[in-house]
Amino acid sequence: MTRPLHLFNTLNRKVEPVEPLTPGVVTLYTCGPTVYNFAHIGNLRTFLFQDLLKRTFQVAGYEVRHCMNITDVEDKIIRDSQKDLPIETDNPARHAAMKDLTDRYTQAFFQDLEAVGIAQASFTFLPRATDYIPQMIQLIQRLETKDLAYAREGSVYYRIAGLPHYGCLAHLDREGMQQGTSVDSDEYERESVSDFVLWKSTKPGEPSWDSPWGAGRPGWHIECSAMGMELLGERVDIHSGGVDLIFPHHENEIAQSEGATGHQWVKHWVHGEFLLVEGVKMSKSLGNFYTLRDLQEKGIDPITFRYAIQSNHYRKLYNFSFEGLKGAKSALERLRTFRKRMEDNVTSPGGGEWKEAIDPIRRTNDAREAFWASLSDDLNTPEALAAIFTLVSDLNAQDDRIALTREERDAVLAFLDETNAIFAGWPHEESNLDADVEALIEARKAAKAAKNWAESDRVRDELKAMGILLEDRKDGSVGWKRA
Ligand code: AMP
Ligand code: ZN
């Protein structure tokens, strides 16, 4: 059994039911990172929203076949990986330098994903663009045979006049637009809509591949069309990215894939809004640019960041602030404490009047219904979380006085686990410690090893005053928990 889910579709600007081509199986393509630097927390917002989208479908009973690409050849990657190489460097060495850079940042990217609760194993396909060059060339040739692509001086361009529905995603008013002839760069504004580049002839100082048009490399847009069609097929249920990808990237992906096949490629286009920092768009030049590592250095648990992102609706701008993370932290603490209380709850058969009035099983079922009604309405996460907190308040109000029966407790725990399979936050112990707490724990270990019991006790008391309780484990290691 699958639950029906609805999502906003950028194609027609409406919330629509998701009806997968194969019942019970959702194919999902999400545009992955360009790996020339660390991901910033804005990028991570988009990947977190896509993780929530995937988990919601999975917990709702669907199998999700998820493909996310790694863009490992692109203008900025070439710029950064080739800048220190002498001009006489040969092609294999240029490729090696590019791979060196992209391997490094791909690894860092997966570390960040794992830290925010996105497992690498949760992806069905993680293709790297450079492994799909033959498929890209074939797709461009297919467009040539349909007269939708033309070569010029070793580069190949898409002829947008040949596709009547070009502009359908970004809702371009083609009549009223000035159309330029062709552009070589991958990124441009909708004001300069033009024939766009599919294959770029090589310039001095660039790595290249052989092609029917001479040495060159793929444009950015063709990468996703080729990998998506190769791995998920010529009809896909959902395709997603940040709002900045609607034009030109996704518009051009539609042109390439639908131009080649002659039918619709993706049914549902889903876009996540931007993350701002203290009210301003994040940018390197303003210095308001954070990576996950910056947050971790400030002692912030990546799971707290995850919760802060997931508790906002994905189609609303999210204004990141350190102050805002405090709210996420206390909400998570409340959920974790509640869960622990349920686990530790001493079972008892009774409950008397309160039990009758509150009826924990009915309350839990009501909460579950409200939770799913919210998520199935375009992933309304703030309301889905509110449904959990209503249950927490109802049961917390009496929990100290009357224990739940085993059956009641298990029902509540099952609901918490079901919701956590989507939000991935509550049974988790906070992993990040302040640097000075960590230093004190180390000092305590050292004192114990030196059998300096007075010092060891002193450090333990100091930590206790800071709200950290130490646990001396049988294996000699030292665990900790918050008081
Ligand atoms: P990139 O690595 O630049 O290709 O971006 C990876 C993903 O992050 C894309 O889906 C972008 O739309 C998204 N993205 C970029 N900047 C932001 C931001 N400030 N907030 C949310 N998503 C973003
Ligand atoms: Zn893409």
Description:
With 483 residues, this protein is α/β, with parallel strands linked by helices. α8 (302-310) packs across α9 (322-344). The protein folds into 3 domains: 6-272, HUPs (Rossmann fold); 292-431, Isoleucyl-tRNA Synthetase, Domain 1, CATH 1.10.730.10; 433-482. The longest helix is centred in the first third of the chain and has 25 residues, at 91-115. It has 15 helices and 15 strands. The radius of gyration is 27 Å and the shape is globular. The model has no long low-confidence stretch (mean pLDDT 91). The strands form 5 sheets. It has a 4-stranded parallel sheet, sandwiched between helices. Strands 5-6-7-8 form a 4-stranded antiparallel sheet. The chain has a 3-stranded mixed sheet with strand order 12-11-13. Bound molecules: adenosine monophosphate and zinc ion. Adenosine monophosphate binds next to α1 and β9.
